[in-house]
Amino acid sequence: xxxxxxxxxxxxxxxxxxxxxxxxxxxxxxxxxxxxxxxxxxxxxxxxxxxxxxxxxxxxxxxxxxxxxxxxxxxxxxxxxxxxxxxxxxxxxxxxxxxxxxxxxxxxxxxxxxxxxxxxxxxxxxxxxxxxxxxxxxxxxxxxxxxxxxxxxxxxxxxxxxxxxxxxxxxxxxxxxxxxxxxxxxxxxxxxxxxxxxxxxxxxxxxxxxxxxxxxxxxxxxxxxxxxxxxxxxxxxxxxxxxxxxxxxxxxxxxxxxxxxxxxxxxxxxxxxxxxxxxxxxxxxxxxxxxxxxxxxxxxxxxxxxxxxxxxxxxxxxxxxxxxxxxxxxxxxxxxxxxxxxxxxxxxxxxxxxxxxxxxxxxxxxxxxxxxxxxxxxxxxxxxxxxxxxxxxxxxxxxxxx
Length: 402
What we know:
By secondary structure, the protein is an alpha+beta fold. Helices cover 19% and strands 31% of the residues. α1 (8-19) crosses α3 (97-122).
């Protein structure tokens, strides 16, 4: 019986299926597929509008106090096209799908998914505003059980969806804490599985995964700074000339500015952490921050989207959370809804062998064509995507020493 040739559509279908099983972090994101581009194909720059949850304040008593419905939107842009290009002998198309995938598609998808994962994780720089570490003598050391319990508590105070908390760790972080957590896993079959695999599953209210694409962060050399002017709010705070630098992704606090519970607006008794959204040079006089600093109204009345108990006072001290000029692994506890990755169908070019498929929110395209100039048959696997940390407060950085 003659061998049947693999078609490009069959290969594309296998590639997109393998995507979800290749990278632990990518497997746990909120992924969206937009079929509006199914006919004409998406291009870099195409965008999707995402509606954010509405926030309300609660009245006391029978008298109504109507508040405007203030919907907030954000835009996710399909800003990046990435792919893998390869050339393989035509005879290999006689292989089975499984054999072909093992030799060519799985390695290509693994590398492509890894690059996309790094891009999405890097997007946490300047977005994720919650941070926890374990320090000794001013230096970051390996996180403990309490570190992860605190990270989980931070997610709760930010009103992240419950029962869906996850943590992605660098393999070295995973190895360092696996032993400490070994007795916390139930039932006994899971303890046995952890012993055999060396990997954690579920503990401390978190689903655990390890991923080698966890990024590193190097903090700025910041040593001192104060606020310039009272009553400030928003995403940029005027300062007196700071000493040292701030890096995008650094975490800072302002003296006297506590965070509030996102639902009740009650003071949760700790300084509100803000992430620096762009680098600040030494002697800089303005710091971009997230989340927006939104204080209460007159008399301390709760307001929609409130984030803090008060605006910083004039000359309030600015502090860097964590050591200055330190490089650390940026493990992240999060819920999938914190970050969204969207893909769309790329255009199918004319006069080529091409296939396109989508699975579980991810669309990929494969194109194959003979190249006259080099006497080769080239094959390319592409994805066009965008990502956005839609609710970065639903994620917590858990620092670990290198």
